[in-house]
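hey can u run this one w/ 4'-deoxy-4'-aminopyridoxal-5'-phosphate bound, need the structure tokens asap thx
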Amino acid sequence: MTFQTSDAAAPSAIAPQPGILEIEPYVGGESGAPGANRVIKLSSNENPLGCSPAAQAAFAECAGQLAIYPDGAHVRLRETIARAQGLEADRIVCGNGSDELLALLAQGYAGPGDEVVHCAHGFALYRINALANGATPVCAPERDLTTDVDAVLEACTERTRLVFIANPNNPTGTLVGREALERLADALPERTLLVLDGAYAEYVRDAGYDAGAEIARERENVVMTRTFSKIHGLAALRLGWMYAPRHVVDALGRFRAPFNVNAPALAAGEAAMRDQEYVERCATLNEAWRDWLVKRLAENGISCTPSHGNFILAEFGEGRAGAADAFLKARGLIGRKTASYGLPGHLRLTVGDETACRAVAEAVNAFTSQ
Ligand code: PMP
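ok here u go:
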């Protein structure tokens, strides 16, 4: 998915708000490979097993009620999430993908003259959302492709309104510990909101990991965002949620679209959240095949960052990543180039099912044996 910029964006009397034309449009994962017999999409970190059968059934049941508006307060879904996660339902906000929640946070809290801090290899939308609201994105350096809390703190000023950290991060897959994040939350300037993006939280196996719920629970300056697009396998429905202090819930509730989440998404999301057994099965399989794939690549001299998500970041070296991407694509394996993230020597590959992982390992072996 690519939005085209064009000459139509040339100066005109009718100009968009400051910052908009500085945005490099988000480029989503490719899904086609011309000439390949079969295609395995490993470019968007989707769940290779799909969604829970219960979620699929709940979605199908909605087909007879499409004339009816959805519940704009998302009461049942929020209560289901709250029960499953041990949270307060009135501190949960649901959105049209966590993308929407990230955008609402930026719209609500950052404007001209404000700064938004993100990490060097942080998710692309943080910068886009800052610019879209006329705010200035500020990039904090990382250490070993991992969030460096001290560098984040150094990047903050009195103008910083938001700090976005994905944990695990996309595209690096690396993790930062709870203690470091708590230290960050407590040392941020008074007017700064910390957003912990847990899009890949369910895949993490580290004891002591907290996606943000525990960090946010007792604090007024921390928000956690989550998605149904990854482990729950509902990317097509666009559904995300966040856990936030009540003052943030109140602010976003004043301007979000009244029916921002559609009825099939609400129904499928409820069923998916109840099916924690399915979540666990997907996480177990992901871990097994991720570790297997990392080992196979290492045998071929390709190292990966220690990933805690459902993808790996494989280092082919500058000048070779493009060739590796083309080689894989010719075999129907569609990965994601990461040059736009400042990682021109890497490729990000979703951990697929057994067939996909074996195909990737074989292709990388063939590529490196050339
Ligand atoms: N955060 C991160 C770190 C992501 O990788 C993604 C998806 N690529 C999102 C948020 C947004 O996901 P969604 O809008 O599908 O919930």
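The mean pLDDT is 95. anyway lmk if its weird
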